[in-house]
Design a protein that fits this description.
This protein has about 525 residues and is an alpha+beta fold. It is built from nine helices and 29 strands. The strands form eight sheets. Strands 19, 22, 23, 24, 27, 28 and 29 form a seven-stranded mixed sheet that branches. A six-stranded mixed sheet has the order 4-3-5-11-14-17, sandwiched between helices. A four-stranded antiparallel sheet has the order 2-1-26-20, with no helix packed on it. Helix 6 (about 290-295) packs across helix 7 (about 305-320). The radius of gyration is 25 Å and the shape is elongated. It starts with a strand and ends in a 13-residue tail after the last strand.
Length: about 525
């Protein structure tokens, strides 16, 4: 949909511009990219000190086939890091090069990690329990009081923040994956039935168990087992690590409540933070329980996210009940509310803006509707908006189009003053916008900010331009200064970002059609 102010035909409804090139040719619509990085590690460099995680490489290989079949990823969209390829440096590099640099807002991203997970002492004070979660790559090792060659949750959070605007799915089939884990093999486990736990003892636990710092191929293998609550027991039967009390963690491996949720990310974890995750026997070979059940839940029609959560949880519990799966792991599926009733990767052209602009940290309330009470318009119709806010602030109205273009329609050349009081606001304040081509779905966003973001000066923008303007690489609901008592700068020398404001947004998906109109959409508009 494109709209024009009746008294200012030069002002275009932002998200739908760029409908034509010189000579009247239609701009080519960029098709969303898909990129997947799948990591699976069965055997580790410092074996036998670091025990294997059977079935992890099979998880990555089978998942590659699964996302091609169910979600249309192509073979050349997928990169596999298996075994010795999956070093800490390589995982981070491929994440940066393949998932971040090869994509832009509006694209699809899938990441799977299958292998050991663990916890280590928190070094920056952002964890309530004093522990960071870690992924254990092929070259992981213990280095005294800390791990060597791991991917820490803080590092992964920084990487995922750079995927703002992508519809991204992260699957962690490892221990401490509810904040990450796949434990170690239990000596008493029945390998063909119960499978292995995917948990790597922490540095403190390693010391208690007598596991020395190992060089490649060296090191003393400790004889211990892992219970479901991660009580590590030596051969003599003495518990060397007590179970940690179940608690709500303040930071996940990927923090969906602050960063991931606002960016449209889905986080699927094999177990809660105090539980072990296990492999199981599937047709004579080991598979991670989560990876296997995740694919099985897609048999038949593709489920919505809510249905996927229910099916995965119920199937894990059923496998435990009948004795096919050891332990009591309970998977976790987290995402923004806008994604709850949609399948993974559904309708990416409208879901990204809807999911991205929501601030779970703010208590501000913003609602948005059309004054005509419609969500479908035909070419030539008048359209106006009604925005309700419960607080004063600077109000912005902008649109995201299917072409991954965006523009601000308020404030505009005719109405520059966008500071509003609490209440109901009509936009535009007089007259209406006029619906013009192209046709299709667009997402209108109403954003209320406690500081002047000084937006609206540029008519034609990409989605990435908007994300960069609103919060650098962190367009998310995490308001760092909220409630902390940070003084407002006396004079702004640059545009403020969302990180410096209390803000909230509302979204509305609208569709333009030529039915009943004398003007027709071009074939490429459909």
């Amino acid at each position: 949909m494109k709209t024009l102010l009746p008294h200012s035909l030069t002002l275009l409804l932002l998200a739908i511009l760029l409908a034509s090139q010189p000579h009247g040719s239609r701009a080519q619509i960029r098709q969303p990219k898909s990129r997947a990085l799948l990591v699976g590690i069965d055997h580790y460099q410092n074996a036998p000190t670091v025990r294997p995680t059977r079935g992890a490489e099979a998880d990555a290989i089978e998942t590659a086939q699964f996302i091609q079949t169910q979600y249309g990823f192509r073979a050349n969209d997928i990169r596999l890091l298996l075994g010795k390829e999956a070093t800490a440096a390589r995982i981070k590099q491929e994440f940066q090069d393949w998932l971040i640099r090869e994509t832009q807002p509006g694209d699809r991203v899938f990441f799977l990690y299958a292998g050991h997970g663990s916890q280590t002492k928190d070094l920056n004070g952002d964890e309530a329990d004093g522990l960071d979660e870690v992924l254990a790559p092929y070259d992981v090792n213990w280095g005294g009081n800390s791990f060597v060659n791991v991917v820490v949750d803080d590092e992964l959070d920084e990487l995922t923040q750079q995927l703002v605007g992508r519809l991204a799915v992260f699957v962690f089939d490892s221990c401490n994956s509810g904040t990450i884990t796949r434990g170690v093999p239990g000596a008493s486990a029945k390998p063909n039935i119960e499978g292995d736990a995917r948990y790597l003892p922490s540095p403190d636990e390693a010391k208690s168990l007598g596991i020395g710092v190992a060089t490649r191929g060296g090191g003393k293998p400790a004889d211990y087992t892992v219970s479901d609550e991660r009580i590590l027991t030596t051969k003599s039967g003495t518990p060397d690590s007590q179970p940690r009390e179940a608690q709500e963690r303040d930071l996940k491996l990927v923090d969906v409540r602050t960063k991931g949720a606002a960016a449209g990310h889905v986080i699927i974890s094999a177990a809660q933070s105090n539980q072990s995750a296990y492999s199981m026997n599937v047709s004579g070979k080991q598979r991670g329980a989560l990876s296997y059940v995740f694919a099985e839940a897609h048999q038949g029609r593709v489920p919505t996210l809510g249905e996927l959560r229910q099916q995965v949880t119920q199937q894990i519990a059923k496998l435990q009940e009948v004795g096919r799966l050891r332990g009591k792991q309970r998977p976790s599926v987290e995402a923004a509310p806008a994604l709850e009733n949609k399948p993974l990767f559904a309708d990416i052209k409208t879901i990204i803006p809807e999911a991205a602009f929501a601030n779970p940290q703010s208590k501000l309330k913003v609602t948005l509707r059309t004054r005509e009470n419609k969500t479908t318009y035909k070419l030539g119709d008048d359209i106006s908006y009604e925005v309700m806010t419960d607080a004063p602030g600077w109000l912005y109205l902008f649109v995201f189009s299917q072409e991954q273009k965006a523009s601000f329609i308020f404030p505009n050349q005719a109405e520059r003053d966008n500071y509003v009081k609490a209440g109901t606001h009509r936009l535009p304040r007089e007259d209406s916008f006029i619906v013009t081509p192209p046709c299709g779905k667009d997402v209108t966003i109403a954003l209320l900010s406690s500081v002047d973001l000084k937006l609206g000066g540029k008519e034609e923008m990409t989605w990435q331009d908007v994300f960069d303007l609103l919060g650098s690489k962190k367009l998310t609901g995490y308001v760092r200064t909220r409630g902390v008592g940070v003084k407002k700068p006396q004079q702004q020398t640059r545009p403020a970002s969302l990180d410096e404001a209390d803000w909230q947004a509302a979204s509305l998906t609208l569709e333009t059609t030529d039915q009943g109109s004398s003007t027709k959409c071009k074939p490429s508009d459909q």
